[in-house]
Design goal:
Distance between the termini: 37 Å
Order of helices and strands: HHEHEEEHHHHHHHH
Number of domains: 1
Low-confidence stretches: 181-185, 307-313
Number of helices: 11
Strand content: 5-15%
Shape: elongated
Helix content: 55-70%
Structural class: mainly alpha
Mean pLDDT: 76
Length: 313
């Protein structure tokens, strides 16, 4: 059993993760069945997908740190940040992760690493300038909840199943287009059958992508709520976390669009999404719950802890 420290297990989170991975697995099985039915060899697709999984699973922390221009810092280089992480680890009874700073004005934080021993907690220079120490503590406690729940590993596996299913259906599509369904076993002059098969494969492909995308986004939004809950309970200050959320969300509008668009690729890791203005798939199918939903949950936690909800609003 994973060591969660004092981050209590969340039965709803576990159930949602289990259901999502099961459904993604079902999508994968259906896609494989379609592949086999039309006579395409699935080995190449599976090998490629496993290669993607290995790269993402073993190299995620390096890739994210590099992409965000972040570097691991020592206690001597960032004593205040390390002191906050030390306090959270003591409160949560968890081993201390590596601590990093990303040089960007985008106010955010993230956790990465497939296991607690490989974990990195990173804060941007933008968030460190804007938040008070107790607000930053709430944000980093949220990120430590991701580490305790092994969210990075779970989301990597969930994404892998979706990617694999998508690759399978694409392989079927291109094999059909270029006549790769077994040569002589298929009447190449039968154009009607070819068109019907192409249409069927395209429909399956769209369904696979849509279902995988929506399931992973739903899981991502719930894990953010669970991390909010975990961080608020460990620190005992849901109002500080709510204040940080409100402040960061409000300050996103002042960040240059170019910087936000660069950061959008890492939204699944962030404490709160970095979204440029205008329509985008990121705003339509967010990796994070709405600000109102997150604040409402923190208000309930504040009431449960015997505090006032006023500080959360």
């Amino acid at each position: 059993m994973a060591h969660r420290g004092r981050y209590a297990a969340d039965p709803q989170l576990s159930a949602r993760m289990g259901l999502t991975v099961f459904l993604l697995g079902a999508v994968y099985v259906i896609a494989i069945a379609v592949l086999i039915a039309v006579g395409v060899n699935a080995i190449v697709v599976i090998v490629i997908a496993l290669g993607f999984l290995a790269f993402q699973y073993f190299g995620s922390e390096k890739a994210v740190l590099y992409g965000m221009n972040a570097r691991v810092v020592t206690p001597a280089e960032a004593p205040e940040l390390h002191a906050i992480v030390d306090r959270i680890c003591a409160l949560a009874d968890l081993p201390k992760p590596r601590v990093a700073i990303a040089d960007t004005d985008v106010p955010n934080a993230f956790a990465t690493g497939r296991t607690p021993s490989k974990a990195v907690i990173c804060a941007t220079t933008g968030i460190m300038r804007r938040l008070e120490p107790e607000e930053l503590e709430g944000v980093l406690a949220h990120e430590m909840a991701h580490v305790a729940h092994r969210d990075v590993a779970v989301m990597t596996i969930a994404s892998f199943l979706g990617v694999l299913a998508g690759l399978v259906t694409r392989f079927v599509f291109y094999s059909t287009m270029f006549g790769g369904f077994g040569g002589g076993r298929r009447n190449r002059d039968d154009k009607d059958n070819t068109v019907a098969l192409l249409f069927a494969v395209m429909v399956v492909s769209v369904i696979v992508y849509a279902v995988s995308f929506l399931l992973i986004r739903a899981l991502s939004r719930y894990r953010e709520l669970a991390a909010d809950r975990g961080g608020a309970l460990v620190t005992g200050r849901p109002s500080a976390l709510a204040s940080a959320l409100t402040k960061i969300s409000g300050d996103m509008g002042a960040i240059p669009t170019r910087d936000l668009r660069h950061a959008e690729a890492f939204n699944a890791f962030f404490f709160t999404p970095a979204l440029a203005s205008g329509f985008s798939l990121s705003s339509l199918f967010s990796t994070h719950p709405s600000l109102d939903k997150r604040l409402a949950q923190l208000s309930k936690i504040s009431a449960q802890l015997g505090g006032t909800a006023a500080g959360v609003r």
